[in-house]
Amino acid sequence: MPIVTIELLEGRNIEQKREIAKKITEVFTEVIKVNPETVQIIFHNMKKEDYALGGKLFIDKA
Amino acid sequence: MPIVTIELLEGRNIEQKREIAKKITEVFTEVIKVNPETVQIIFHNMKKEDYALGGKLFIDKA
Amino acid sequence: MPIVTIELLEGRNIEQKREIAKKITEVFTEVIKVNPETVQIIFHNMKKEDYALGGKLFIDKA
Amino acid sequence: MPIVTIELLEGRNIEQKREIAKKITEVFTEVIKVNPETVQIIFHNMKKEDYALGGKLFIDKA
Amino acid sequence: MPIVTIELLEGRNIEQKREIAKKITEVFTEVIKVNPETVQIIFHNMKKEDYALGGKLFIDKA
Amino acid sequence: MPIVTIELLEGRNIEQKREIAKKITEVFTEVIKVNPETVQIIFHNMKKEDYALGGKLFIDKA
């Protein structure tokens, strides 16, 4: 049942997402003893023009 | 005012989204008597590499 | 797998949530033929001071 | 620390996002005195087939 | 139609939310010329035990 | 910059959240080499009447 949504900048490859999904699922099974089959992970891949920090889009950062 | 966000795997066509939007709006007007013009629905279409269940990306499921 | 998040003003009772959950699940099983056991629905209940439309908090609407 | 997610119809250009990000960050530094470097803004760009109001997808509106 | 969700630490008062809602709505009407009546803002108020930065809950920060 | 939102049933204590936050942050620093100070985690704690699976609220499950 934990539903985990991850906003991250685009450019991560499938191997990295695979590893993140596997390891985050393990965190939940270890810490709160849930059935791994209930852990869900969603990646939202942001373009650099769609994320701003400090009032500045990432596309504008050096 | 209900704002409904739907995360689902990509591949649904417009006709299916049209029907889902229409029917979910009816659910809210029936059950909580809201004005249908206040019901909003947003679809987020996930790629199979962006959704994991049980620690495994959907792209890796047989 | 559809994960449905519903932002709505607080004050809906359990019977209304029960009915919304049941009927929205039926919409997905009818329209996209998913297994009902994969349909998940999350309610976020907003206070009237936490929702604004037209620049005005709901708590300030007559 | 405020994390601001904006769902809007696609078609806004980078200049508009740049201005929105800058001005919303200013709102938070003025009103709640946060360090601007902690203000984060995420844009989710919706296609017209992915947003419905009043039971109707935007792609179907005249 | 912009739907703006703001995750921020709890403790902001209604006057601050009122001002944030008003000013963010103005940003959208100025920059993308939308009808202010379509701008929606949702506040999610996080407890200090529900937000972590750098691997540490805010409740544990000095 | 990864912003991780976790929807889970209420009832987890601070010690469990502390451990989840610490370990998920480590996953990101290991797999995608981000600065841990950019990893943010938000917990949304759902009541049993606010989460449904298979058309049934959790409060109604035996």
Tell me what the structure shows:
- Six copies of one chain form a homohexamer.
- Chain A is an alpha+beta fold and 62 residues long.
- Chain A has one domain (3-60): Macrophage Migration Inhibitory Factor, CATH 3.30.429.10.
- Helix content of chain A is 31%, strand content 31%.
- Chain A has one helix and four strands; from the N terminus they run E-H-E-E-E.
- Chain A has one helix at 14-32, and strands at 3-9, 40-46, 51-53, 56-57.
- In chain A, the strands form two sheets. Chain A has a two-stranded parallel ribbon with strand order 1-2. The first copy, chain A, has a two-stranded antiparallel ribbon with strand order 3-4.
- In chain A, strand 1 (3-9), helix 1 (14-32) and strand 2 form a beta-alpha-beta unit.
- Chain A is elongated.
- The N and C termini of chain A lie far apart (40 Å).
- The A-F interface holds A 1-9, 12, 16, 19-20, 23-24, 27-28, 30-32, 51, 53 and F 1-9, 12, 16, 19-20, 23-24, 27-28, 30-32, 51, 53.
- Strand 3 of chain E pairs antiparallel with strand 2 of chain F, so a sheet runs across the interface.
Span between termini of chain A: 40 Å
Estimate percent helicity of chain A: 25-40%
Q: What is the level-2 CATH architecture name of chain A?
A: 2-Layer Sandwich
Total count of helical runs of at least 4 residues of chain A: 1
Compute the number of strand runs of chain A.
4
By CATH reckoning, the class of chain A would read Alpha Beta
How are the strands of the biggest sheet of chain A laid out side by side? Answer: 1-2
User: What pair of chains forms the biggest interface?
Assistant: A-F, 22 and 22 residues
Listing every helix as H and every strand as E from the N terminus to the C terminus, the arrangement of chain A reads EHEEE
Q: And the CATH topology of chain A?
A: Macrophage Migration Inhibitory Factor
